Input
Amino acid sequence: MADHNDPTAASSVDPDAVEPSQSPLHVRPSAIAAVALGGLLGAPARYGLGVAFPQVGGQWPVTTFAINVTGAFLLGVLLEGLTRLGPDTGWRQQLRLCVGTGVLGSFTTYSTLAVDTDELLRHNDWWAAGSYAVGTVLVGALVTVIGIAVGARVPRRTEGAGR
Output
């Protein structure tokens, strides 16, 4: 029989493991509120830019492209920076939900990317449609990597640092 008072005995519980919450994140009121609050900021920002720099039918959608590329960059910075600050819990998780999912999720508009591409195709502008669709994805991926590199400049939290 194992001696339960032996301090060298292996423990079956990982002391560093994060305990699961009672409910999934996507149904927690605090998580929903964080995303909603962010959405209240990101969606009007996108709308405002669309009004200030309107899309002319049949032309390359510069405003939507700029919005999506900017959002991809900022998301890379945010997520890498938060990762370096510690585990996805507490204020880091709330910030990720509010700014990442809420603000940037409602600011970027990949549904409009699809609609704009379709509009260009309906005008038989295959070159504009293809360069816009593929360019948005490729440039978005590139600026995400650049954003991650910028976010990597955030110093990693050390084990002894406060939460």
